[in-house]
Design the sequence.
């Protein structure tokens, strides 16, 4: 029998949160984010390209030798798209004329220049250098065109699990760290409206953890004697995302700038003013009345509605996809049509 504090939650809908957590785990238990299933392939003509920690590439070389469907997952090239690209592990290879071993690592920064991109990167010392002959034997597994691709400087994205290929090739040792993507860290901000609401938030956190999200929650990460103001400041500042659970009480506290919620929102507002186009702060609605009340500073933001009567599972899935920076696959773009009697 469920503990009393969970009874209302379990009865909320036919699926109920306690049921939903299992349903989501079943459906997404084997979820592989784009960072696990794709990798960046960077090929350079320069024999010392991967020794300095920085590299430049002209814009027209991005996505060469990339499947159109894979390319569509990163277009249009928005800030979020570049974040997804940066989250992928990378194979740093040389053109064949260099006759130098390829390395595995990650892109750590992407600078946008008028004629291209400036990349910073780090190499993973836990993955052995890949000698040219060995790389040639792995070209099919890595989706590298054996005829031309290693004869041209470019940046491609491949739908291949790089970690699996490296492990199967015996190139990975226990010290390898960069092949495994870091799970997104997400701070759950909410108001302590009731015991039942605190339990609801905890179950939401459990759902997200089951979907590979590293949730920061006061119920798990604070205890007697802790400095709560420092915890809130650290959580808002250091987390990749802040999910703001907007009940009527939560919105009221923000509008009136009261309590811990008001303090957290002051931190949020400061970052919003510095980064106007950030998508770090995500409103989640849990309210009973219409119209929904929203935080003034996030009034134009796309929110996830997890209120009673709304499709809970679909909402949590949408939230998890955003936190993992997973983009929908765009359908193929058809050719330009022609009609009789109309010019080209």
Sequence:
């Amino acid at each position: 029998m469920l503990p009393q504090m969970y009874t209302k939650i379990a009865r909320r809908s036919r699926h109920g949160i306690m049921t939903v957590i299992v349903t989501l785990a079943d459906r997404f238990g084997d979820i592989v984010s784009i960072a696990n299933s794709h990798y960046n392939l960077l090929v350079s003509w320069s024999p010392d390209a991967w020794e300095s920690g920085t590299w430049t590439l002209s814009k027209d070389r991005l996505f060469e030798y990339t499947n159109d469907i894979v390319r569509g997952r990163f277009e249009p090239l928005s800030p979020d798209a570049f974040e997804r690209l940066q989250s992928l592990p990378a194979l740093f290879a040389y053109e064949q004329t260099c006759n130098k071993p390829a390395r595995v690592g990650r892109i750590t920064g992407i600078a946008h220049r008028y004629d291209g991109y400036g990349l910073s990167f780090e190499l993973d010392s836990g993955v052995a250098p890949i000698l040219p002959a060995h790389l040639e034997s792995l070209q099919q597994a890595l989706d590298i065109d054996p005829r031309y691709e290693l004869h041209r400087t470019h940046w491609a994205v491949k739908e291949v699990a790089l970690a699996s290929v490296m492990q199967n090739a015996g190139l990975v040792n226990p010290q390898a760290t960069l092949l495994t993507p870091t799970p997104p860290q997400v701070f759950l901000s909410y108001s302590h409206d009731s015991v039942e609401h605190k339990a609801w938030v905890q179950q939401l956190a459990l759902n997200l953890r089951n979907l590979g999200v590293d949730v920061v929650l006061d119920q798990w990460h604070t205890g007697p004697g802790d400095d709560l103001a420092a915890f809130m400041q650290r959580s808002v500042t250091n987390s990749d995302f802040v999910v703001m659970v907007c009940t009527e009480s939560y919105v009221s506290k923000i509008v009136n700038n009261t309590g811990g919620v008001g303090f957290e929102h002051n931190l949020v507002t400061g970052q919003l003013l510095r980064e106007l186009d950030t998508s770090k702060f995500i409103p989640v609605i849990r309210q009973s009345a219409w119209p929904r009340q929203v935080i003034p500073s996030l009034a134009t933001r796309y929110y996830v509605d997890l209120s009673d009567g709304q499709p809970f599972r679909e909402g949590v899935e949408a939230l998890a996809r955003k936190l993992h920076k997973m983009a929908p696959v765009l359908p193929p773009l058809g050719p330009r049509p022609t009609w009789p009697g109309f010019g080209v």
